[in-house]
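Worked example (supplementary).
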Amino acid sequence: MCRVRFRKDSGNSMRQQETKNFTIKDIARLSGVGISTVSRVVNGHPYVKEETKKRVLTVMEEYHYTPNANAKNLKQISANAISVVVRGTNNAFFASILEKMERAIEAGGFQCRVTYLDERSDEIDAARRVCNEKKVQGVIFLGGSGVGREKELEAIPVPCVFSTESAAAANLEHVSSITVDDRAAAKQAVDYLFEMGHRDIAVLGGVREALNNIGLRYQGVLDSFREHGMTLPEERYFTCLFSMEEGYNAISRVLGTGERFTAVFAMSDVMAIGAAKAITDTGLSIPDDISIIGYDGIDLVRYYNPTLATVRQPAEEIAEKSVALLLEAIENDSPARHMTLGGELIAGASVKRI
Amino acid sequence: MCRVRFRKDSGNSMRQQETKNFTIKDIARLSGVGISTVSRVVNGHPYVKEETKKRVLTVMEEYHYTPNANAKNLKQISANAISVVVRGTNNAFFASILEKMERAIEAGGFQCRVTYLDERSDEIDAARRVCNEKKVQGVIFLGGSGVGREKELEAIPVPCVFSTESAAAANLEHVSSITVDDRAAAKQAVDYLFEMGHRDIAVLGGVREALNNIGLRYQGVLDSFREHGMTLPEERYFTCLFSMEEGYNAISRVLGTGERFTAVFAMSDVMAIGAAKAITDTGLSIPDDISIIGYDGIDLVRYYNPTLATVRQPAEEIAEKSVALLLEAIENDSPARHMTLGGELIAGASVKRI
DNA sequence: GTGAAAGCGCTAACAC
DNA sequence: GTGTTAGCGCTTTCAC
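After joint prediction of all chains, the assembly is encoded as:
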């Protein structure tokens, strides 16, 4: 492309020059030093005469030199960096954790490299690739799961931390994890609805599998029902994906049939928001006709109308502990640990005592 | 790290092997062919005997070989890829455009490489780096601005498209842009408020600069006021950043002083949501006491209570046109173009006729 | 059809 | 303090 572009005004050699990608060799030649000296300056290594350094920096500036990261990574043994592999873009809950992780990683003296993956991609595969291409010293999986992937995890040569999913079952000496006690937290949410006098409670959640967060939250729901001498009828569990749209559709559909309940526990705040809108669109009121409580504690619940009750997962604590666990493993070669944090019930105007 | 880990059970050579990063050389040796043959198989080049190909693939499979992207990029001249540089993570409006861009780019036969940048980073610098490291054939800037950066843009050797910010002023033959007519769209929003009988209108927006989107939206606001024989008092313009929190704080503060108006135009939906919550938290009703209309048309406005009126920027059209412009420039070497799309007024329960 | 060999731009010994 | 040089893992001529 550029070729053609330049052919149009080939008399202009200035532009030709501006487009050239300067290499370390060019900079060395232009500043009259060897390439290793340039490399030393670029990487802030010691033992370069102040004067030489200045000259090299000037040339670098003048020609807009940027080192080629491919070449750097190809050669470099280790880069003092930590990689965070995030599963699922556009997830408000993860976004808030990620932000805090970045800060903690940098505070710990490491660079932070974030890899965003969509749902279709394999996070462990991506991590393996990052490890040997970017030479990172540790990996944090945000929203990924290591369950049943022991074999692949073995192939990752640096300490790992699974954030928000337990990896205790993998039982690997380089894989830690940090989770919220989903079962207890979900129980708290439903307990709260019972306390507020609700008896006819619906649950909006994802596909229940024994070992994932959803399965655990479901267990917590059952625990609460059991403790209150009740059982959750299967027709009161609505399955949907983690989006407002899906939550809306699921609850719209059931309310459309004339079915009624006095409260909903949604296993994520975005589902809860969809559900809330479905309720008001049906002409019902929150919380007068139906109460609703979510899960996660994303910022948005505070700004919704009415303010949504939720069980907050402690984002900053998750972030800090994840990074702390990883740094310990990297720096002190500490053994893997699996920590569990508690959720926090946040009351909101969306739940009414009946 | 891994060293230490392995020393713990150095008798286990299996794990040692699993952690090794296989290179193209290893695969060549293990399958008894030359490295160029492996390279051909990996890249799907023709002229490899079916049998040889099969053998190589088997070995690759067996040893979980993944090519090193650094080495690949270092050597490769061009990669049939397009880079999208997104400024500002966690922006729902951009996220929806990005998703559609990815699809369009892949449909056009190119790979899509997304680079996420925070507000502090320089998007043009990042693009330049991506160009010579990843060998992309074109760049789309989502949310970046090329204004006043002609010099740096010249250094990018491939066609570019600025999405959502005009780059007409740069007047470069390889830089196109696609924008919404912010001025007209903002005018629509305020016109609508006037039509609904509002006279005391507040505006919540960002820092006004002559050439950016905010400045244009502000001009549109002034246009509408002028057309309705009025002027916007300076004390009715509230400046805040693009977040719910900022919108909330700004409107809370002013309502707290007892100041009142009958309608608010917020220059983004997230600001509008913050403002909406500030209004209801003050004990006022939307739309009975104060009407509100936002800007952007993110999904969330449909799920808010009450449904927020907004001016929708046509995300899919922006995405499609951006990609189309770029593909044309890449494939047919078409000259730069600057397109302007229209916004669409979306009525909502948040605006009341008075 | 397939292999040998020359680099891509850089880092890190090692020599001076 | 600074320069020379050997690769990192790959693609890509160019021979055969």
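Two points are worth noting when inspecting this output. Chain A is about 45% helix and 15% strand. Residues 1-18 of chain A have pLDDT under 50 and may be disordered.
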